[in-house]
Structure prediction request, 321 residues.
Amino acid sequence: MTQLMGMAGPARNEIRRRAGYEKIIKSCEQAKKDGYRWIWIDTCCIDKRSSAELSEAINSMYQWYHESQKCYAHLNDVCGTFFPSEQDLSKFNKANGWPEWFLRGWTLQELIAPKQVEFFNKDWVPIGDKGSLAETLEKITQIPIDVLRDGLNRRHFCVAQLMSWAADRKTTRVEDRAYSLLGLFGVDMPKFYGEGKKAFQRLQLEIIQRYYCDHSIFAWNSKRQFDWLGDVLADDPSYFRGCHDVEKVELDQSSSRGRLVCLRSRGHTLRQQLAVFPLTSSYIGLPRLLRKPDHHRFQISWIWLLQDSCCYTLPTLAPGA
Prediction:
């Protein structure tokens, strides 16, 4: 703002006409109206010229949202005075029939982390909040209604289910599809813009180290939407589409035995203590690892191909006994 005041009249007026400037002004006006003295806005409160500040902001953003009193969500493609209750491709053809805000990668944590989220339409008219709209938001995002109303307890959800909430979300930078999920999983890792999809590979490795007992991270592509490319890790969150109803089930220790299994993924060797059972000479399985809410149990099978002393695996999801 200090730089803006020092600009010449025409340049200052040009900036004031920008949508981003209006969002800042309207947010401040709403915060003042709600009785708040301070407001944090990602578009102007992060100096992206500083890699250190940008990295700190990415690491801390989820916690900042969680500790905030309220989060404002501006839906700039909603013109009416009511929150959309049904898909409408004629109005929201860019985002699968829903407001585009729900298609952005970074807004996932803005929806989950804060205690309160208030939604505004294009003209900054309030159209509802996270609590009152929980049923509709669950329909849009497939995030369980208790998470929207009571907050996220990571112990109650497996990795595949959390990943599925980001499956259809997009970011401008490829790397941000991974970086925008750091807070959701409570992990940290260095940021290297320019590494492309390697960022999501590294994210999965960090998650495996933190949640080493949760093998659902290998349950991607449960709907067989993607051709298998010979890797044990997913390429991006979209590979977890359809995993929103996967639940982690503890292994029956009395009927299983642990075995140290090494999985190789693009130069990385993952060591996992898995309970494995021989199915045929070519398969080993993970019984009772996952289940659907209707209590039908599933097992993950791994096809092992040995070539030059390297192991390659193909995850397949099949009904279990």
Confidence is low (pLDDT under 50) at residues 253-266, 275-321. The radius of gyration is 22 Å. The chain has two domains: 7-155, 156-252+261-272. The longest helix spans residues 51-67.
